[in-house]
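Progress narrative, work stream C.
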Amino acid sequence: MTELFTIGCHLSSAKGYAQMAKDAASIGANTFQFFTRNPRGGKAKAIDPDDVEAFRNLAAEFGIERFLAHAPYTMNPAAAKPETREFALQTLADDLARMENTPNQMYNMHPGCHVGQGAEVGIGLVADALNAVLAPEQTTTLLLETMAGKGTELGRTFEELADIIDRVELSDHVGVCLDTCHVWDGGYDVRDGLDGVLEEFDRVLGLDRLRAVHLNDSKNPLGAHKDRHEVIGGGFIGADAFSRIVNHPALRSLPFFLETPHDALPEWGEEIALLKAARA
């Protein structure tokens, strides 16, 4: 039996879950990612129960088992300003409650920026926020994303992510999303040293924590700490490396999500077809 290759891209949630399922299927995807609200902040659109029910039917028809919701970029639980941290807490709590309308899915967030307080303080604030919002009964897995290390970003190293998770009381609800552009820009050589990177991930975090992969090439050389995504094969990581990534034994059973810089669905469809062809 052929192993399921779970791959999709970032879709607009403006028209609801059912439309996202249709859009995903139209380009050969069997998963998708979306922002829970405007990525620059704002109030989330009300969830329509009829839309959720239509999505469940379409997901079963199209073979969509998992999706990934993405928190807004403005959410910073490590901020120095109390009002910014409070916004992050409110957003996290609201998003996680909304996620239970579609149980057993994943919610991805950037850990945040310590804005000059120092990584140790920032890590503590992120862990405090997660301890405040995670609940034993939730079915959603919250993912911390690997970051490129620009500015005062947290999550630039596997050790920083492990430090956050070690302080979370309900850590069984927490996993990691590995972004290929981010880790490359952060100094992890996923092009020529993929085995070593994953061995280090396993040593520091444990591969059981790895739940999803963002597939993005990079406009920057290794270790640039800039975070500028490029289309697959158009950047410094290169197409051959992505063939190795989607086929690696430690990764191939995970869902993959494209965040490459395209303006139209067919362009992501072309990349999905390319990666499907590379899948052994």
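Work stream C, second folded protein:
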Amino acid sequence: MSYVSSLYHIVFSTYCRRATITNEYREKLYAVIATEIKNMRSKALIVNGVHDHIHILLSLSPEVALSDLMRNVKSRSSVWAKQSGYFPLFEGWEREYGAFSLSAVHKDAVYKYIENQQDHHNVTSFDIEFNRLILKAGLTLYKMPDD
């Protein structure tokens, strides 16, 4: 028998980081995202966010490529959000996302971090948060040249 632990903290934002996810219906959107993850034989441990981005803690099935899961989750949740009528200003998700692997030792801390997103973003912007996650993962920040 194979034993695989593949935990990820995923972060992605709305198109142009516009504040289009309203508090009133966001739980419905999170449920759609969790269902899509389940449909990909993986498990969403928590889905939460704020008006302009989403955080997910998930356990990825060893049979599924992360890029395939993210393509399906973002595509299907975007279609649902547009068709539902709950988010009239929602245009879709940004193309990019952050996926940060973590050990089981850090699972509870990341869960609590995601659970407290509303409080966290009262004091920290998305840009600062995302840059910290990138640097903490040992990755290099990439900035597009100005047009």
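The first strand starts at residue 7 and ends at 13. No further action is required on this item.
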